[in-house]
TrEMBL record:
It holds the Pfam family AMP-binding. It comes from Acetobacterium malicum. Residues 87-287 form the AMP-dependent synthetase/ligase domain. This is AMP-binding protein. SUPFAM superfamilies: Acetyl-CoA synthetase-like.
Length: 438
């Protein structure tokens, strides 16, 4: 098994000795101090956030972990106060509305130098799964400068890898024709859209050998289907715009991400108390960026659920492995103390039903869950709807002490190939929360 190329890149980027991987922690702490000095000097937000804190007194990880967190709400409320450079130096602004709700939106700023660091990560990250003879199709935004597809193509151009950037999936027939004509054998895309493509265009998908899924949580049921039906190797990428798009990618062991540790420092914390948790324990993923010109982030709470692996990766790297992300904290809807609805568990059930095309989960009160469903067959039998209800009801009967009434209704939901304006992540609609927010 090939060792993750991320190790070579991080050694080259940091200058550490491969014989002494502990040097990486020393490097990261040094970079954190530099980031604190830079942010406190140039960012109005961090001038206030770090008031009374002398970065030069951060001598240990214990010192660092006493620093305050940065939240998504902080960015939504005052995005321009995070800027560390004049607006004239900003080369890309990304406006995020991932929850699908109205109100303030996060704005993330990049200079060209920031974007080039992402190209570096994509270059070595993609080497985990492809070689120069592979032919890649990217089903992610890529027409504008600094978009994911644009940066990914620049990275693959370095290794002279054929790369076709299509953009978000909008035309199944057109994508299938490109796959056949260009002899595409690797697809990079959004999980639900790639699954939709594989189910609707099975003949065209048969030549796909490798898939890299990105931008959202990847249910295991999806991985199993792509692997078993088409023999695809399915790689996971973990990242978010706030990280500079890229955070970590799986190696050939397909057992978790190797992280962008030359550019980012990751922590896992207890989401309630904010304290670090032990390796192997799931908590909230937090990161700090290094050398980010436009908008450094310090101890940024991602809202994602993850854990560091306790085992050494089979590929033989000294780098840490983060287990596959288990979804988002916001998609654990609490019904009563200790009882919750978890989108992850329900998606493993729903995505295993191949007739199901799209769905939306709606919680109206602590005893009721509604599932709006649409099927590939426009006129599905009642048997299909009953099957969905039975499987979900069985899950709650076995795993939830609170009686839950499951309702399934056929609905005309937006198809995955119609999500052309944004990359909104799947979520549970909690009507109770929305009523409280009115």
């Amino acid at each position: 098994m090939k060792k993750t190329p991320m190790e070579e890149w991080i050694i080259k980027r940091t200058g550490i000795s491969p014989a002494n991987p502990k040097e990486l922690e020393t490097y990261q702490l040094k970079k954190i101090v530099e980031t604190l000095n830079y942010a406190k000097k140039n960012s109005a937000f961090y001038q206030k956030q770090l008031e009374g804190i002398d970065p030069e007194q951060i001598k240990s990880w214990e010192d660092f972990k006493r620093l305050p967190f940065t939240s998504a709400e902080d960015i939504k409320n005052e995005p321009f106060k995070f800027l560390c450079v004049p607006q004239s130096r900003i080369d890309r602004i990304v406006t995020l509305n991932t929850s699908g709700t109205s109100g303030n939106k996060k704005r993330i700023f990049f200079t060209d130098t920031d974007l080039q660091k992402t190209v570096d990560f994509f270059d070595y990250g993609m080497r985990s799964l492809i070689g120069s003879s592979d032919r890649v199709m990217v089903l992610l935004p890529g027409q504008a400068y600094g978009t994911i597809g644009n940066l990914l193509k620049k990275a693959l151009d370095r290794t002279k890898t054929i790369c076709v950037v299509y953009g978000l999936l909008t035309d199944l027939d057109a994508v299938e024709k490109i796959i056949v004509a260009k002899k595409i054998n690797c697809i990079v895309g959004i999980p639900i859209q790639v699954l939709y493509l594989s189910r609707m265009k099975q003949d065209g998908f048969k030549c796909i050998e490798k898939v890299l899924l990105s931008t959202d949580y990847v249910p295991q049921a999806m991985v199993a289907e792509l692997n078993q039906k088409f023999g695809c190797q399915v790689f996971n990428h973990y990242g978010m715009t706030e990280m500079g798009y890229g955070g970590g990618v799986e190696c050939q062991a397909l057992n978790g991400y190797h992280l962008r540790e030359g550019d980012l420092y990751f922590e896992i914390i207890d989401p309630v108390y904010g304290e670090p948790v032990a390796d192997g324990v799931y908590g909230e993923i937090v990161f700090t960026s290094f050398d980010r010109e436009a908008m450094p982030l310090i101890r940024y709470r991602t809202g994602d659920i993850g854990a560091f692996s306790q085992a050494t990766c089979q590929c033989g790297t000294f780098l840490r492995t983060m287990k596959k992300v288990e979804g988002r904290l916001k998609n654990r809807i609490h019904l009563e103390d200790g009882i919750c609805v978890d989108l992850k568990a329900l998606e493993e059930i729903l995505l295993a039903i191949e007739d199901l095309m799209d769905y939306q989960l709606i919680v109206s009160d602590k005893h009721a869950l509604k599932i709006d469903v649409s099927f590939y067959n426009e006129e599905p039998s009642a048997e299909n709807e009953n099957r969905v209800k039975m499987m979900v009801q069985e899950y709650f009967d076995k795993n939830c002490e609170l009686p839950i009434q499951v309702e399934v209704a056929k609905n005309q939901l937006q198809k995955p190939d119609q999500l052309v304006n944004s990359m909104v992540k799947r979520r549970i609609v909690d009507l109770r929360r929305e009523k409280r927010d009115e």
